Fold this sequence. Notes:
homodimer; alpha/beta; five-stranded parallel beta sheet; 25 strands; about 30% helix; about 30% strand
Amino acid sequence: MSRIVVIGGVAAGMSAASQAKRRRPDAEVIVLERGPDVSYGACGIPYNIEDPAREIDDLVVIAAERFRTERGIDLRTGHEAIGLDVAGRTVRVRERSGEYDLGYDRLVIATGAAAVRLPLPGADLPGVFVVRELRDGAAIKQHLAATRARRAVIIGAGYVGVEMAEALRGRGLEVTVLEKADQVVPGFEPAIAAIVQDELVRHGTRVETGVSVTAIEPGLAVQTDRGAVPADLVVVAVGIRPNVALARAAGIGLGDTGAIAVDDEQRTSAPDVFAAGDCAEARHLISGHLAWVPLGTTANKQGKIAGANAAGAAERFAGIVGTAGFKAFDLEVGRTGLGLAEARHLGFDAIASRSRHKSRGHSYPGGTDVTTVLVVERATGRLLGAQMIGEDAGKRIDVLATALHAGMTVDDLEGLDLAYAPPLAPVYDPVLIAATVARKELAAT
Amino acid sequence: MSRIVVIGGVAAGMSAASQAKRRRPDAEVIVLERGPDVSYGACGIPYNIEDPAREIDDLVVIAAERFRTERGIDLRTGHEAIGLDVAGRTVRVRERSGEYDLGYDRLVIATGAAAVRLPLPGADLPGVFVVRELRDGAAIKQHLAATRARRAVIIGAGYVGVEMAEALRGRGLEVTVLEKADQVVPGFEPAIAAIVQDELVRHGTRVETGVSVTAIEPGLAVQTDRGAVPADLVVVAVGIRPNVALARAAGIGLGDTGAIAVDDEQRTSAPDVFAAGDCAEARHLISGHLAWVPLGTTANKQGKIAGANAAGAAERFAGIVGTAGFKAFDLEVGRTGLGLAEARHLGFDAIASRSRHKSRGHSYPGGTDVTTVLVVERATGRLLGAQMIGEDAGKRIDVLATALHAGMTVDDLEGLDLAYAPPLAPVYDPVLIAATVARKELAAT
Lengths: 445, 445
């Protein structure tokens, strides 16, 4: 008997289970998912909320039943792993009708991450939501439909906060975004964050930065250190945290980031136990360190590798360079590699160079400005990171991500032969302009 | 005295002149442009034609007068270089009022390329146009305005033919495209070309491939080996040819492609004579050979380097990988590197792998399929070329162009950390899917 158990049935978990079964059709592959939903695109929740006509289940990529019938996976929804004995190779499982022990030969932990809830009075009031799981999205849609909410307050201006601002403005609500840090999208370079904030404001969102929420009062009212903001709907988007309680209790090693430490084959410190996705770390190819950058792409890729290796392969995850993208109303925003502060913190002698250029060819209608920040090592000119905002920034950042993977310098970047046609790009793409500007700034320092 | 003379005042020429003057403000920089217009974006002509309200001069990036007053360049429009004595360092110039000799210390040849005219009866009839210079665009707009042309025939289905089909459909004309080869966009992989053709047809364009035009008759009627097609407007878009007569007559070496041979500092075979842009070759980094791929980006970059080096620098052009993009109605099309036939012709043992994936995330509205062809070296998995069609293909191809510059294999490609958010891309971007499919096909061969 060979049994592969996977804990968690979203991106990493279902990728792992599918890959394991594909590699070893003879193996018994069991997935334990505590919730009712599997294999859904959580990143699509804000866009689903924006459209009242769409069912939340549209976000399910592959229905649970298809995993069972078509892929031969023993998928157990409503089954929660509540204990793990890595010496005895047993998972303790709780389901509606009781508890049971489940032995395994290989285990994949894909427990994901959970939304951080505010440790404040009123954080659990009706009308206060996080945006993480499918049922969160369903609850927000139901609330909108049932209460005809008119005023939304979003606490936190990270990706999810910005996406929810767009979604709720799209539903016609008055939206206020409250951010504790002194800029929106903390972690982005200030020049990029300022443009995100302008875009929020341009679309009628009220934005307050440097503000602390102290309580949420029934009614609803969000109390801050600057006064109260009345709301019919409150979205808490202050970040996520890896679900590591099960692993930690089992004695599995966590990394400095607090997520589960893994090697590049997704192996944890426990024998035959793998971890993948938002609960696990990943090798950051630019810093060289293990990092926790929980994103859907990485979850899918790591899950696939954990599943393959649980089935006996020895595949390696290529690592990350920290690429991420999101949309803020009419602009795309992308980042890859290190920010300036992060680079300096890691000991790089780095500069940040900012440039701005059009997204389309001369005299071609439409398009936007594209602002780019390149983070560059001073002595070598090596690219360490990049951030962009504007039309197609979510694609242009991929060029810079590829350059990071290849260890390119700004000279290499400037020499890239990129596509040009007036609807697509200017003669000198913003990526090339950014390289030229950075090269000149390096020469001047 | 130090005098730098530039022959040609469009992309490469004005880039060279501007760069030379910037490097050597004390030098006398003279530009000889035989036409009336300088520094215009020829690639924008179809889009300008599409909009009757726009002036053709919108395509001028920097007005002639500004080069004279702001940049201190002696820009001579209506002055044609008709002879060149490289031993005597003299250009023979013809202008409206006569001819004169102009000595130089350094010379940049940026004579560009000219549209190929059909060697057929009726090719010069009124109502028959090419699309190359600003005045060609002006003439077409004038013809459309004056004649209320209803039926257009486009001879040639390369980039320009496809762009003109879109422009003239946009103006409400009936459009027929006639292509001699057995597919549209010859040089593209058949799988990509078929989708371009479908897109043309979907937007009401009549397309005939494998058809030969034999004459254009007054009236107008385009005679083919399959019968006559009546037209009120005929656009001949059968390619361009480098303007090398002046250089050839002066004994300057041409390459195998027929364009002017240059080294990576843009030097020709004649002392202190540089060449840049559509009249010159460029090093193709994947084939290793000198190639003639006349495009606006390369013209601007080579011009800048020729100008810098004419001013005494020793900069090197990084070379090309053959990246190009264009728009075909609602789809973007991109290519980079070698096509399959080209790769095999050069002696590579290559395969072409085709894949198709969505352009946006699961359940995010809109988007298109993206079809990708990767050309890959069989033994090593090294990427040799790529072609894509679909939403954002003009940007996604830049990722593959960057991978080509870096010498990446399909394994490297598959490991790229690219941006994901539902409006921007699926969890696995089409680039990553293409790499996975190619890797599997390699493993199966």
